[in-house]
Design goal:
mainly beta, 16 strands, two-stranded antiparallel sheet, globular, Porin, 3 helices, 14-stranded antiparallel barrel
Length: 315
């Protein structure tokens, strides 16, 4: 088991260093704005976002399809999740996912992400007050994931995504891949996770070529204390985006009887939306385990706040 764990860690480090060298364009600045399809980096799921998006080693189940596909391996039978948020500047961001356990063949899952932009009036150099023609824009991602628990401690997963961005009469599409792993160390309740998201070729948008918003992540989660009735979990994520500076996310989750949850998180080295908090309820009824989660993130006086709500079912 230790050998398998070392193989996973060494492979992850090799992938990280190789891809970092491959995707490092030699910029000496933050590289912000050098990648397209930025909607893929918007957090999905009220639970994970309430924790400051530090969810790599904690998120298990169908909603982990948006963070670390290895977590999908923990779906026991069937599961579904729905998430909605009124995103910045009156945009609407929604997502849904579903997964089914195929026994010894692993777990299969599907995901959908949609970002809708309100229609706005077209402007030109000669008609800066508006032409009277309305313009629309939206983003869409469709994913197919597979995950498997190789032992009681190690799970791995991957997801292939078709992504499309529509801007008025122009559209751009690509095919991307996510990979990840979760390892339960057996020491206390410590879990270690690694993931790489949005692998894919560059795309040409109008006259410019953009690379993908590639992310490399390392996550840790451990229970500060754990009793039959109470649990307090600390989660930490280290994130290396190839189109921005590195950052860290921290989160705390308190669970009472695994029924009521309180959460708070902080994103270090983030320009906006540093603090977040939220909570959730989880209960079983007639063989269906359901949960409702909420999160709040403040993005400042100009952009306002973001409220997210998620509903999940295991049946």
């Amino acid at each position: 088991m230790k050998i398998k764990f070392l193989i996973v860690i060494i492979s992850s480090l090799l992938i990280f260093s190789t891809c970092q060298a491959q995707w490092d364009y030699g910029f000496d600045f933050s590289k912000a704005g050098s990648a397209g399809l930025q909607f893929l980096k918007i957090g999905i799921g009220a639970k994970e976002c309430a924790l400051g998006e530090a969810s790599l080693a904690l998120s298990k189940g169908v909603n982990s399809i948006f963070w670390n596909p290895a977590g999908v391996a923990y779906v026991e039978k069937r599961a579904a999740t729905f998430s909605y948020s009124g995103w910045l500047l009156n945009m609407e961001h929604s997502a849904c996912g579903a997964a089914i356990n195929l026994g010894k063949f692993g777990v299969m899952g599907v995901s959908v992400i949609y970002l809708g932009v309100p229609e706005f009036e077209e402007t030109t150099v000669l008609q800066q007050a508006g032409t009277g023609r309305m313009v629309s824009a939206n983003d869409l991602a469709l994913g197919l994931a597979y995950a498997r628990r190789f032992t009681d401690k190690l799970s791995m997963g991957a997801q292939v995504r078709y992504v499309k961005e529509q801007l008025d009469q122009d559209s751009f599409s690509n095919v991307l891949m996510d990979i990840g792993a979760i390892y339960e160390t057996g020491f206390r309740h410590l879990r270690i996770a690694v993931a790489a998201q949005h692998f894919g070729p560059d795309i040409k948008m109008l006259r410019d070529t953009f690379r993908m918003p590639l992310l490399f992540k390392l996550g840790l989660a451990d229970d500060i204390f754990h009793t039959d009735n109470n649990r307090l979990t600390l989660v930490v994520d280290l994130i290396h985006p190839t189109d921005n500076t590195e950052r860290m996310s921290f989160g705390l989750e308190y669970g009472f009887f695994d029924w009521v949850f309180l959460r708070s998180g902080y994103r270090l080295n983030s320009d906006l939306g540093e603090w977040s908090f939220g909570g959730g309820l989880q209960q079983s009824l007639i063989g269906v385990e359901g949960s409702v989660d909420y999160s709040y993130t403040d993005f400042g006086e100009i952009l306002g706040s973001v409220n997210r709500i998620s509903v999940s079912f295991n049946f």
